[in-house]
């Protein structure tokens, strides 16, 4: 029993509860167990577990509550009250002795309040776009970590093969040195090669541990419980900056936030120029219990009393409101500048990614060609070792290939394989980042869910 469990998870978009059940099942596995989970499932779990997404969801709820608050002031609010004398009253208190009361109050017309409603609506849109932006960022982070871990795992497998080949190389050089065929420096060089390969393997193990921790933090699963399924990684859509752009949630969120601030500033500015009309109604149920209120009035008070009316307020001189309007205008200006700055920064980021993509694409092609050349060289060496170099034994004949050549060629081929994996990951990371910058993350999510 090794304690390892390999489970392949297939993503089904028609069952949104599947990632939750999968997460519960994986969380119940032992810490040392390994489960093969698809990229789509990891992304779904990361979106559900992300604290950034949860904070963005709370921002949406807060914005929706603020919008309701700005509109509910036009709906009459009712308040009920009751009071009984604690002891018989002495003298005239100046207020009718009410045993029960009910009051209604509402705003009928206010130009600033209309602007506040528009500001709250823009705030809801900004929060909703912010939530979408947070989910896309989590998708990007989880996808990059998953793809990188998949590449690192393949590199680790190749690194272990290199170390096995290096051990054989040391054994060959040891025998050749003892036989006097090779010098001691050749043996030391073989040991140096083995030490360097060991260092690289340790570096890859550290890198894999960091990525496993990152994925565990993103998904909420135990550390080391996720083994990437290479077949679940779809081909990344290739987009270019000049082929058109979709709406970028982060930038649109900043723009809507600026509009919200501008609306609020307009409402604060108009507050001192427009009247406000309100409505109120009040009902009182008076009592003669424990008081002699009728003694002070010419006619007895009625038991039921009702009053209603409209109130009109026009501020003529309010320095605090004028200062508040200046403050709101400054906040609106800042939000507008920040939205413009976000747009400019994204344009610069797109230009940088576009330039990097051309270089990374070429580097990936070069790494792939080097891997193919190394593989061809390995096949040539293996053929020569098996059949001989066929050059004969004359003075001009090439020397026979030494046995260590096979190990060195195999080590080089595995190194070129790892270099190709690194170049491929760098290219994938740049392509995903460009998708995000151009607003095409929905295309990537579609690829994940249809894989």
Description:
With 451 residues, the protein is of the alpha+beta class. The protein has one domain (18-72, 110-275, 314-388, 401-450): Up-down Bundle (Outer membrane efflux proteins (OEP)), CATH 1.20.1600. Helix content is 63%, strand content 10%. The chain has 9 helices and 6 strands. The chain has helices at 18-27, 39-49, 51-72, 111-178, 184-219, 249-270, 319-387, 404-437, 441-450; strands spanning 35-37, 77-82, 98-109, 226-228, 276-286, 304-313. It has a 4-stranded antiparallel β-sheet, with no helix packed on it. It has a two-stranded parallel sheet with strand order 1-4. Helix 6 (249-270) packs antiparallel against helix 7. The longest helix has 69 residues, at 319-387. It is elongated. Residues 1-16 and 27-33 have low confidence and may be disordered.
List the helices and strands and how they pair.
Layout: H1 18-27, E1 35-37, H2 39-49, H3 51-72, E2 77-82, E3 98-109, H4 111-178, H5 184-219, E4 226-228, H6 249-270, E5 276-286, E6 304-313, H7 319-387, H8 404-437, H9 441-450
Parallel strand pairs: 1-4
Antiparallel strand pairs: 2-3, 3-5, 5-6
């Amino acid at each position: 029993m090794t304690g390892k469990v390999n489970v392949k998870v297939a993503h089904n978009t028609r069952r949104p509860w599947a990632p939750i059940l999968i997460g519960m099942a994986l969380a119940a596995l032992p810490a040392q167990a390994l489960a093969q989970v698809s990229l789509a499932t990891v992304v779904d779990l990361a979106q559900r577990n992300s604290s950034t997404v949860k904070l963005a969801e709370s921002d949406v709820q807060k914005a929706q509550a603020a919008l309701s608050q700005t509109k509910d002031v036009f709906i009459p609010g009712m308040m009920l009250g009751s009071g009984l004398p604690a002891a018989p009253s002495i003298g005239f208190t100046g207020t009718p002795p009410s045993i029960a009361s009910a009051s209604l109050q509402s705003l009928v017309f206010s130009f600033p309040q209309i602007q506040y409603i528009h500001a709250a609506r823009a705030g809801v849109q900004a929060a909703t776009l912010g939530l979408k932006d947070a989910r896309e960022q989590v998708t990007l982070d989880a996808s990059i970590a998953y793809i990188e871990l998949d590449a690192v795992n393949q590199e680790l497998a190749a690194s272990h093969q290199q170390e096995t080949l290096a051990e054989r190389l040391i054994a060959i050089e040891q025998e050749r040195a003892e036989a006097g065929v090779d010098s001691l420096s050749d043996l030391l060089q073989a040991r140096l090669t083995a030490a360097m390969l060991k260092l690289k393997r340790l570096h890859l193990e550290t890198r894999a541990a960091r990525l496993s921790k990152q994925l565990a933090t993103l998904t909420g699963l135990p550390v080391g419980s996720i083994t990437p399924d290479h077949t679940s990684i779809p081909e990344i859509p290739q987009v270019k900056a000049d082929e058109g752009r979709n709406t970028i949630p982060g930038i649109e969120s900043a723009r809507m936030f600026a509009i919200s601030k501008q609306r609020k500033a307009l409402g604060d500015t108009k507050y001192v120029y427009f009247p406000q009309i309100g409505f109120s109604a009040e009902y009182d149920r008076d009592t003669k219990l424990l008081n002699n209120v009728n003694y002070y009035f010419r006619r007895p008070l009625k038991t039921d009393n009702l009053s209603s009316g409209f109130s009109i307020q026009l501020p003529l001189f309010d320095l605090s409101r004028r200062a508040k309007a200046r403050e709101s205008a400054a906040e609106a200006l800042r939000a507008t500048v920040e939205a413009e700055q976000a747009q400019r920064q994204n344009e610069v980021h797109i230009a940088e990614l576009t330039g990097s993509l051309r270089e990374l694409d070429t580097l990936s092609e070069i790494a792939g060609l080097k891997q193919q050349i190394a593989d061809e060289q390995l096949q040539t060496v293996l053929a020569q070792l098996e059949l001989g170099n066929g050059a004969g034994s004359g003075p001009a004949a090439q020397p026979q290939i030494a046995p260590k050549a096979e190990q060195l060629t195999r080590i080089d081929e595995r190194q070129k394989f790892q270099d190709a994996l690194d170049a491929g990951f760098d290219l994938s990371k740049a392509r995903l980042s460009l998708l995000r910058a151009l607003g095409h993350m929905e295309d990537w999510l579609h690829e994940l869910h249809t894989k």
